[in-house]
């Protein structure tokens, strides 16, 4: 993806339906501050950022990173196929701005898409489905708790419509299709892996649930590396079937 | 290596940034992921920190007290 494509994607994603949503939720997505999120290790009052490496590099190269991101940025590599040298490269960072973005127009894609992350068809353009924009959001339904995001509860249709109408032409590059899909695959993998595992995840006690979930997640108990790698390779191959092999 | 040196190595910060009042999310590099890495590193160094204590040992003071008892 070239500069023009990243710029177009960011500018169009900036127009996804928002409607001063922060006024209705206490900036939940920026602060991870729901009353039942009784975390001991994950930092509350801030948000975890994830970037495909090339998005991070685009923002950094053009001086568009939000304040503080570079200080907490950590680069990761995750090899999904050793034979073909397929390696996912991404960057994590913490955002402590609490909704007061230092450069709102260029906030990360993970923020612009929240609360719904699109899963794009392998050939590009069409949105096939959505996954929740935060790994923690997978559980509200089962916990019997209303989703904290006012946008999600009240304007999901408008978000869907905006994404489909305005972003179809920019959701076309295999790199982007891969990373959007990879995020969905990871989140859904973690959410469903608890089935069959002996974890003391008690949905009748949300605070207890998140305490146990936090340690289970951070210690890798909710990830089966072999299964996850296979899912991601399958995802890559489906895209490469349409676009040819591409760099991750 | 002593505890402060191990922590500085895992968090990629200076030893001087770690003192008796240091806590998770208050020291550069001591975030939730590196906290788990620290526990794994301490266990690989021969200390015994069971999984149920990971969320309890979130300060230098608590970790130090636990490994002194070990």
Description of the structure:
The complex is a heterodimer of chains A (248) and B (70). By secondary structure, chain A is of the alpha+beta class. Helix content of chain A is 43%, strand content 14%. In chain A, the strands form two sheets. In chain A, strands 1-3-2 form a three-stranded antiparallel β-sheet. A two-stranded antiparallel ribbon of chain A has the order 4-5. In chain A, helix 8 (174-193) packs antiparallel against helix 10. Chain A is globular and about 50 Å long. The model of chain A has no long low-confidence stretch (mean pLDDT 91). Chain B has helices spanning 3-11, 32-44, 60-69. Helices cover 46% and strands 0% of the residues of chain B. The two termini of chain B are 16 Å apart. With 70 residues, chain B is mostly helical. Chain B contains three helices and no strands.
Brief write-up:
Chain A is of the alpha+beta class and 248 residues long. Chain A is built from ten helices and five strands. Chain A has a three-stranded antiparallel β-sheet with strand order 1-3-2. A two-stranded antiparallel sheet of chain A has the order 4-5.
> Given the C-alpha coordinates, what overall shape of chain B results?
globular
Q: So how many helices of chain B?
A: 3
Mean pLDDT figure of chain B: 93
SS field, number of helical segments of chain A: 10
- Unreliable residue runs of chain A: none
């Amino acid at each position: 993806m070239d500069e023009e494509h990243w710029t177009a994607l960011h500018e169009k994603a900036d127009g996804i339906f928002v409607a001063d949503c922060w006024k209705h939720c206490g900036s939940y997505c920026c602060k991870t501050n729901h009353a039942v999120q009784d975390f001991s290790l994950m930092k509350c009052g801030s948000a975890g950022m994830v970037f495909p490496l090339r998005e991070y590099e685009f923002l950094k190269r053009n001086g568009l990173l939000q304040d503080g991101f570079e200080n907490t940025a950590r680069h990761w590599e995750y090899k999904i196929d050793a034979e073909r040298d397929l390696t996912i490269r991404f960057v994590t960072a913490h955002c402590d701005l609490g909704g007061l973005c230092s450069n709102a127009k260029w906030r990360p894609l993970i923020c612009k898409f929240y609360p719904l992350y699109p899963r794009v068809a392998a050939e590009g353009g069409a949105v096939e489905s959505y996954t929740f924009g935060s790994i923690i959001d997978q559980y509200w339904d089962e916990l019997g708790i209303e989703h904290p995001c006012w946008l999600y509860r009240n304007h999901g249709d408008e978000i869907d419509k905006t994404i489909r109408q305005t972003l179809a032409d920019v959701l076309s590059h295999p790199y982007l299709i891969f990373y959007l899909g990879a995020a969905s695959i990871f989140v859904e993998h973690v959410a469903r892996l608890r089935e069959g595992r002996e974890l003391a995840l008690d949905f009748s006690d949300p605070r207890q649930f998140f305490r146990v979930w936090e340690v289970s997640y951070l210690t890798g108990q909710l990830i089966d590396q072999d299964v996850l790698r296979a899912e991601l390779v399958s995802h890559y191959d489906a895209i490469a079937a349409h676009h040819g092999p591409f760099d991750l | 290596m002593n505890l402060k040196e191990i922590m500085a190595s895992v968090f990629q910060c200076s030893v001087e940034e770690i003192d008796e009042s240091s806590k998770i999310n208050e020291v550069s590099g001591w975030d939730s992921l590196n906290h788990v890495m620290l526990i794994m590193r301490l266990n690989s160094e021969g200390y015994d920190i069971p999984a149920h204590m990971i969320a309890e040992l979130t300060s230098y003071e608590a970790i130090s007290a636990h490994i002194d008892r070990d």
